[in-house]
Write a structure and sequence with these properties.
Pfam families: Response_reg, Trans_reg_C. This protein folds into two domains: 131 residues, Response regulator (Rossmann fold); 95 residues, Winged helix-like DNA-binding domain superfamily/Winged helix DNA-binding domain (Arc Repressor Mutant, subunit A). It starts with 13 loop residues before the first strand and ends with a strand. It is α/β, with parallel strands linked by helices.
Length: 237
């Protein structure tokens, strides 16, 4: 019997399981929770989309044969969503033909595992994809006109001087730095920073942009965040 380890650092990792077979779904959720992951479950494509309105997962496990749409169709929707398009996806399915595997990977899955699958192997693949996705983010250094962000250290410096930002301001600045000279609509900013929560008003974006500008103004960098009336904002020189 395999020994399960205490992985407290994984408590912040949200895993969405999209599987219509309740026994398999519950077994995966139980195994993931026992390993320290936070799990969210959906029995259909539409349930998965509802879950994605509430939480941005760190990884999604998707079955091919869902009752209301195929797993491939769900992946297509996810890859078209600006908020979650880069989330790692593992397809877990009974379809073992090479052509199906190729199709799944070409349509946007990052990995493909056939049933019946070992939970130990699934866990190893989940951790591998999380390491890759988190690792890419952690080494990321973003810079624009003397503004330098280190995501790993959660640090922002302007012309070499560290500044203090709230978590929301940090996320907002990161979004701008990741998309220099690109117009970001208020809706896009809302979705990315707060999740796809329709109860958050556009005015929320304006308030936090104002606060971010105030933090940058002390270093004469607030002018780089430009307002595009009626649409949104962009970071541009």
């Amino acid at each position: 019997m395999a020994t399960l380890t205490d992985n407290s650092s994984e408590m912040n990792n949200n895993i969405l399981i999209v599987e219509d077979d309740m026994a398999i779904r519950e077994m995966m959720a139980f195994s993931l929770r026992r390993e320290g992951f936070a799990t969210f479950k959906a029995a259909s494509g539409h349930e998965a989309l509802e879950q994605l309105n509430q939480v941005n997962p760190d990884l999604i496990v998707i079955d091919w044969g869902l009752p209301d749409m195929s797993g491939i169709e769900l992946i297509d929707m996810i890859r078209r969503d600006d908020v979650i398009k880069d989330v790692p996806i593992i397809m877990l399915t009974a379809r073992a033909e090479e052509a199906d595997k190729v199709k799944g990977l070409e349509r946007g899955a990052d990995d493909y595992l056939t049933k019946p699958a070992s939970m130990l192997e699934l866990m190893a693949r989940i951790r591998a994809h999380l390491r890759r996705s988190k690792g890419f983010e952690l080494i990321q250094s973003l810079e624009f006109q003397g503004i330098v962000m280190n995501s790993d250290a959660h640090e922002v410096k302007i012309d070499g001087v560290a500044i203090n930002l709230s978590l929301t301001e940090f996320k907002l600045l990161k979004l701008f730095l990741q998309n220099p000279n690109k117009l970001l609509a208020r809706e896009h900013i809302l979705n990315h920073i707060w999740g796809r929560n329709t109860f958050v008003e556009d005015r929320t974006v304006d308030v936090h942009v104002l606060r971010l500008r105030k933090a940058l103004k002390t270093h004469n960098k607030d002018q780089w965040i430009q307002t595009v009336r009626g649409v949104g904002y962009k970071l541009a020189s």
